[in-house]
Design brief:
419 residues, alpha/beta, Aspartate Aminotransferase, domain 1, 2 domains, seven-stranded mixed beta sheet, four-stranded antiparallel beta sheet, 38% helix, binds 4'-deoxy-4'-aminopyridoxal-5'-phosphate
Amino acid sequence: MNAKPHEHDGTSSAATIDWHSIRAQFPVLERRVHGKPLVYLDSANTGQKPQAVIDAVSTFSAHHNANVSRAVHALGGEATEAYEAARTTLARFLSVRRDELVLCSGTTFALNLVAFSWALPRLKPGDAIVLTRMEHHANIVPWQLVAERTGAVIKVAELTPEGELDLDGLWRLLTPEVQLLAFAHVSNVLGTVNPVREICREAAKRGIVTVVDGSQAVPHRPVDIAALGCDFYAFTGHKMCGPTGTGGLWGRRELLAQMPPFLGGGEMIREVRFEGTVFNDPPMRFEAGTPNIAGQIGLGAAAEWLSALGMTNVEAREQQLLDDATAALLTVPGLRIFGSAREKAAVISFAIEGVHAHDLATLLDLEGIAVRSGQHCAHPLMQWFGVSATCRASFAFYNTPAEVDALVAALHKVRQLLV
Ligand code: PMP
């Protein structure tokens, strides 16, 4: 399988990598939209896929397709081996043990799994869950569902005007009633990178379980989950060059071992009798039914491909694009950027005075430029900023400085039409 992005092996520096040849491995980026070359600036929404990932999925479907962990025939063995190899690759990519890595459809599933299997059986009236103002709905709504059923309350850690977490405020919220703290590693709207280690250390001192939403971190920077000190870490495959409907949940073994299943069905059992069922050990206990076999194999290929490219190179490249784009966007009259954290990933939410975000995004689309507009699944954050919508340009390593120029030129043009 061709999983190598180039002749390097992750040891090259961002400055020496031929980023054009990396980009050339993403077929969709060759497209034209409305007669213009596609400028894809929506990677925080979903990322594009290199040929190696597309090939991994289609090779499996064309040559090895069978169900996993069930059949003794040759294809069944090949499918199981490839699926478990993907788990091993992902575990290595994230520096965790493979038997602590539950494969699932992505962050939304992973966070619901923690909510319903860890929190629901434990929380009681008077307990508290702490979230932050910058959370995606996927890291809010499952906790609300659990709070409603258990009588626990939700408390919210607020932000500084720059869009960083107000850490002193957060520490004050961590009172003895708090059982769980769930927060994003990187904000999908502001790009803020949260100090995960420090937060997890403070929570652990108080016996609070930490759940980190890594959706926007894993695709863009090296993530060593073991070093973070959290208890659960959720991630999603489709933002990290993998197929949609893939991802996983890492959980501490002691915690996973105590958790009842989330969904019941095949694979998650050891023995079923009508009188009662003996459940499998983690991670299988949480993988009921036929999984997204081809997809997770594709995700394993994505992790291999990204490792060969080197996540520090990815981070450095995107940081450069962020710095250039931020400076250039601020030349557009009336443009406001939401979020100026000291540590920030390559996500820029912005608005232009007097222009609706959807009109802006629609006109940018006519120029071939894909940005997201709306509330970015973060209503409470938008309410805090007092805006109904923003545009968001989100970058990946496959974007180019020329695309930053194209965005800024288009914004100047579109603004003149709309203001
Ligand atoms: N959390 C964050 C911070 C996200 O950006 C996203 C995806 N937009 C999610 C959670 C949900 O991810 P998924 O829909 O892949 O489960």
